[in-house]
Specification:
Elements lengths: L4 E12 L2 E12 L3 E5 L6 H8 L7 E6 L2 E2 L11 E4 L11 H11 L4 H14 L15 H13 L5 E5 L7 H16 L3 E6 L2 H7 L2 E6 L2 E6 L1 H7 L4 E8 L3 H8 L4 E6 L3 E6 L2 H14 L3 E8 L3 H9 L6
Helix pairs in contact: 2-3, 4-5
Length: about 325
């Protein structure tokens, strides 16, 4: 492993005839980190992860998994990946437990370890109570969760999730997102592709915004938002605000402006999380009565629009 990095993908390229699907994509993922590839359908997400997983021969670039070179023919690094594709890879005539046992045998997992691990995985993906039902009887969301469980079974160092919530109901979608949050908190590296901005904001420590086969920008949510220079809006409904109060609020670090209205204050700030406690301290010191606070932050949709000139789902 290099500098705590589970995955390093450098300058990946892939063309299909005259179509340049991936044009020099680079990113890395550390231990316990969830990295998101955020972009519309056709942006190059699936092609990128197919090269990362060793399923698709790349035209150029390099992939290192835990320090080992990944190609379509290398076996050792592939064993460290749990791949959850868009298309379901389960046997409908088997129960969830039977599906997991079948794939565990493919990984040559010892019988005693496999039985214990199956119970653990069923718990993680929320299928313990339906473990002995045939998967053909499952909803679409439950099938997706079983698909994720199969990817987790052998305790991979990297879990790759390709659009795992497409076409599922809201309840199952939330269950999938909770499962991913649990995995990253336990130290697993996760590569997550999505065209849902809210999923990237909820799950990902860092995000690569991808469009037309290129990473347009990369960073934490805050770093990406800073690229477009947008600020957070804090709206405070308060009484007893005078000129001295306004002056102290405007003097706080990171406050761009304070605009009073009849019964509220609009504050444009660089970071609402840092500015709000200080603003409340000033208001309390001046004896102002606060009845409500709302915070509006720019989102990744705004960043995507700024970088590509189009909405995320165009």
């Amino acid at each position: 492993m290099n500098n705590g990095r589970v995955l390093e993908a450098t300058d990946l390229k892939k063309s299909f005839g005259d179509i340049h699907a991936v044009r020099g994509v680079s990113f890395h993922i550390g231990v316990g980190e969830t990295y998101g590839l955020l972009g519309p359908n056709g942006a190059g997400k699936t092609t990128s992860i197919s090269m990362v997983s060793g399923l698709l021969q790349r035209d150029g670039g390099e992939v290192l998994l835990d320090g080992q070179s990944m190609t379509t023919t290398t076996l050792a690094p592939k064993q460290e990946i749990g791949l959850v594709p868009q298309d379901l890879a389960i046997y409908p005539d088997l129960t969830a437990r039977e599906n997991l046992r079948f794939f565990g045998h493919l990984y040559s997992m010892p019988k005693a370890e496999l039985s214990k691990r199956i119970d653990e995985v069923l718990e993680v993906v929320g299928l313990s109570d339906r473990a002995n039902d045939r998967s053909s009887e499952y909803s679409g969301g439950m099938k997706r969760r079983l698909n994720i469980g199969i990817g987790l079974l052998h305790r991979p160092k990297l879990l790759v999730l390709d659009e795992p919530t497409v076409g599922v109901d809201p309840q199952s979608r939330n269950a999938i997102l909770e499962s991913v949050e649990h995995l990253s908190s336990e130290g697993m590296a996760v590569l997550y592709t999505t065209h849902y901005m809210e999923e990237a904001e909820r799950l990902c420590d860092r995000v690569g915004i991808i469009d037309q086969g290129e990473i347009k920008a990369e960073g934490t949510r805050r770093e990406l938002i800073e690229l477009i220079g947008q600020q957070d809006l804090i709206r405070i409904t308060a009484t007893g605000v005078n000129d001295a109060t306004l002056a102290d609020l405007r003097g706080l670090a990171g406050v761009a402006s304070v605009s009073p209205t009849e019964d509220s204050l609009d504050m444009l700030v660089n970071d609402a999380g840092a500015a709000l406690p200080e603003a409340m301290r000033v208001l309390t010191a001046h004896g102002s009565g606060v009845s409500s606070v709302t915070v509006e932050e720019p989102d990744l949709e705004a960043v995507f629009l700024h970088l590509t000139g189009k909405a995320l789902r165009d």
